[in-house]
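protien #1 (seq + structre)
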Amino acid sequence: MTTEDLHDLDALASLTDRVRRQAYQVVAEGAGPVGRDEVAEALGVGRTLAAFHLDKLVAAGLLEVSYARRSGKTGPGAGRPAKLYQVAEAEHAVSVPPRAYQAAAELLAEALEQAGAEETLYRVAQRHGRRVPAGAAGEADVTQLLAGQGYAPAPDGPDRIELRNCPFHRLAERFPPVICGMNLAMITGLLAGAGLDDRWAARMDAAPGRCCVTVSKK
């Protein structure tokens, strides 16, 4: 096992504590950077305990810290900037014994790109999306459907849903046309398979810090 593997193992081991794991979930589900007061309130624990677990998650590389004044005031009397937490961009994965699935995925994506076989990938991705169990279809299930596939959906008004996480982020950075197109095809298939495609549509809508696809009402 490499030093990087051990670091990833330490990071994931930090989530074995129940309160710390819940604190991470509160931050991960937030619409933006989250303060310790929000975490403390969500978990029903004191501010000091919340800050302790949040800082442990920062030390493990699972969260990142920023500072901002939550009141919106500036200048004298505005108070000190609040310490805010958000999910770190770094990814952590451990396999025992070591497996190189990421390397294999990168090789396959590069081969598809060079062969010009993207359309075949998109058809397969859409079929895969249709086969994903969706439960009882309905408007309330759209976010659950997307959350179940790791997209971390966040409503942006009543008619639009942003996807704060790309499950294939590292591949999308290296092969954006291939992987973003695959995301679009798979989400289109998810909506169709759940019987939601008469009300919702997936669209390419790239922006920094989130998935390249959004979902909007028709």
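ok now protien #2
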Amino acid sequence: MKSYTIHFIRNALTDENLEGRYIGHTNVEISDDGKKQLAAMKEELIFPPVEAVFTSPLKRCTQTAEILYPENKAIVIDGFIEYNFGEFENKTAEQLEKYEEFPRWLAGERGVKPPYGESNEEFAKRVCETFEKVAEGLMKTGTTNTAIITHGGVIMTILAAYGIPEYPMHEWITPNGCGFTVKLNPSLWSRAKKFEVFSEFPYEREELPD
């Protein structure tokens, strides 16, 4: 039976990342440093070719896709957009101290959300439903090797929901331009909605998985 290789890749660095801002739906671009960093990684490490590239609609992801996989026409998936931070958007943790919801939201208290934003539960439901539709599409079309270029929060949510080994979200934090390779076995997916987290991504030249 076929297995399906999916590379989850976080968008390249932005100025707002360095400033520690909560950036969700704001359509910021990759910084100059982010472009240089990604180009250097592509030169030194291995980003294997893929059959298809899926991306969040935001520029920081579509630009990352253009740099890493210029030969692929990226397929934009709206459901892979980052968290909707509402009034928390574009603010630092220090600026958010005035919001009584902030520490409760940060602690993951159920049902708490930024004013006019998504709750953690709403975000997870959206992201997971989107991934399940993509996974089913890959299996229907026999597309066995793909990249999903999206945001850190999206990657952490999907891997915490479906990944083996089973780790909490914070264990799946990944640097910009990096991520994880997973192997989706149709039998395991149909029985348990789980996939194997195979390795970190991209690969060292001497560590290319089979």
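Residues 86 and 116 are 5 Å apart (CA to CA).
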